[in-house]
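B., you asked whether I could sanity-check this one before it goes into the benchmark set. Here's the sequence:
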Amino acid sequence: MYRFRHYLLFLLAAWLAPVGAANAQAPAPDSAAIRPEFFGYTGVYYGYDFNVPRTRVRPGFVYSENRHNEVSINIALLGARFANDYVRGTFAIQTGTYPDYNYASEPEVFKHIYEAYAGVRLRPRLWLDAGVFVSHIGLEGPISRDDLTLTRSILADNSPYYEAGAKLTYDTPDGHWTLVALVLNGWQVIRDNNENMSTGWQVQWKPTTRWVVNSSSYAGEGPNQPDSVGRQLRYFHNLYATFQATSRLRLAASADAGTQRRLGRDGYDHWQGAAVLFSQRLSARTALNGRVEMFRDPGHVLIPRARLRPEAGFTTGAASVGVDYFPIPRCVVRLEGKAYRARQAVFERDGRAVRTDAVVTTLLGLTF
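And here's what the prediction gave me:
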């Protein structure tokens, strides 16, 4: 993979050389046309887990809105973005429990980066971006306001929310297709601990204004560990679709499948997940939403082993229902109840291993 990275960069430089020469003959773009747009978001939440975790943190596979019986900020961010016909970029900083837990393995200086990238247009409809950006994988992102439900599914919480590297993005003239190719430091990695690089790709199809079908993949290293420890190749694919059934009803489905080579022994471990979601607008200010999901990770590639039952494996389903209220357009108040049921006793209640859990979460989100 190390040699592949240099070969890929050599080909990219050779391909771009004539483009750079052509641009050198063209008039320089007017820098005054680059006008930053400032933006921000704050999501404050309270969650109560009925298993009453002794650490005040919800089970180890939950990384967003995961504090128990505490008013917390999941994510508060402030940023600026700019774009014209030639260049674009975004820089946004963040704080909250989302970066605390999702960026736990990163150096402190990187934990507060939500996005930091620069891009240049190479050809009409073809862009090169490099830096730190929101992941190309998955239906559900880190900001609750933008998701159909308040909390994230198990598969969303256990696939990358962010990534660092470079990507080429091409949009077809008719607007129906978006194609993305990526070279990445790793699986949700900013500071790399080895010489390995990873790749990713994305194909998004919008056949009509009602449909979005997205296919995203990843191939490369699994854990971000030094070369001396060993390399575990990971292959992963996510497929999701959204459908605007009516002006008030939106439906969505998402599915994951991944495999990773075992360290020091033959064979691969596999995991799978799926979720079906809906959001029904009830009035101009209220909406109802819900999700059913399942996740299976018998080899604990992504899901931490249970403290009381480390040998148990992980096969868990969940269902949630929520209500949204929009007092003003830039503000949302969300309330959600969620119940889990596992095949194995992977949850903990009063010092005992149990198969069920339930949580109620509320959130106030403000965009500015």
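One thing to flag: The longest helix spans residues 2-25. Otherwise nothing jumped out at me.
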